[in-house]
Amino acid sequence: MKRNLKPETIIMRDIKKYLEYRGWFVYRNHQSLGSYPGIPDLTALKNGRVVWIEVKRPGGKISDHQATFAARVMGQGCEWFCLYSLDDAMEVFK
Q: Please, which contacts does 2-8 make with residues 24 or more away whose CB atoms are closer than 8 Å?
């Protein structure tokens, strides 16, 4: 039986594979009870660079919690991106 994957799940998988191919250590953050509200889908690390990645399907919008998380981490000098496609990731991580 084949599972129906949400477009975001497919995009996230493709982004993760692409970054790993490029030498990034990437892990998925699972939202659950006790998680920080708005935590992004992926975290990518390479050579001391830490990037938080929210993945949305085209036309998707971030929530208020996600916007707050983004503002907090960027306020600390970290990078945060909302990516809508593998092409977006290829542009950000070229």
A: 6/57, 7/57, 7/58, 8/41, 8/55, 8/56, 8/57, 8/60
pTM reported for the whole predicted model: 0.90
**14 within 8 A of 41, measured Cβ to Cβ:** no
Contact 52, 70 (CB under 8 A): yes
CATH class name, domain 7-92: alpha beta
When pLDDT is averaged across residues 44-70 and rounded to a whole number, the result is: 96
Specify the 3-state DSSP secondary structure of 75.
helix
Q: How much is the mean pLDDT over the chain?
A: 94
Token pair for 3: 């599972």
Q: For residue 57, give Cα distances in angstroms to 10, 14, 24, 43, 77.
A: 9, 13, 22, 18, 26
